[in-house]
Amino acid sequence: MTSVYKIIEIVGVSKKSWEDAASNAVETMGKNLDDLRIAEVVKLDMQIKKGKVTGYRARVAVSFKYRKKK
User: Fold this and answer.
1) Distances in Å between the alpha carbon of 38 and those of 27, 29, 34, 54?
2) Which of 10, 7, 4, 16 is nearest to 29 (CA)?
3) Cβ-contact 12, 60 below 8 angstroms
4) Do residues 44 and 57 make contact, with C-beta atoms less than 8 angstroms apart?
5) What are the φ/ψ torsions at residue 4 (nearest 5 degrees)?
6) What are the structural domains of the chain?
7) pLDDT per position in the chain (70 positions), as tens?
8) Based on CB atoms within 10 Å of each CB, which residue in 28, 38, 39, 61 is the most buried?
9) Neighbour tally for 64: CB within 10 Å
10) Can you give the C-alpha Rg of the chain in angstroms?
């Protein structure tokens, strides 16, 4: 049997760290999608206000098993 996986990009945000931002993204998606397989951090960036870092953002590519509608 063969499988097909769909890949989507999501963005997680945290005031603490990039790791926390990536975890937030994956854990939130895990509540909405079954069978998450792989998460790859694609891009990291920061939010800045008045010269200070105020937040961390992680763009994450997440793959999950694609199931045909019956």
Assistant:
1) 12, 12, 12, 28
2) 10
3) yes
4) yes
5) -125, 140
6) 5-65 (3.30.1660.10)
7) 678 888 999 999 999 999 999 999 999 999 988 788 899 999 999 999 999 999 999 999 999 887 777 6
8) 39
9) 19
10) 15
Token pair of 26 as six digits:
């994956």
Q: Which two tokens stand for residue 44?
A: 């990291």
Residue 32: CB partners within 8 Å, gap ≥ 6? none
Q: Are 25 and 10 in contact (CB under 8 A)?
A: yes
Tokens of 10: 């999501």
| Residue 67 one-letter amino acid | R
Residue 40, pLDDT score: 96
Question: Do residues 12 and 22 touch, judged by C-beta distance below 8 A?
Answer: yes
In this prediction, residue 2 carries a pLDDT of: 79
What's the pLDDT score for residue 33? Answer: 81
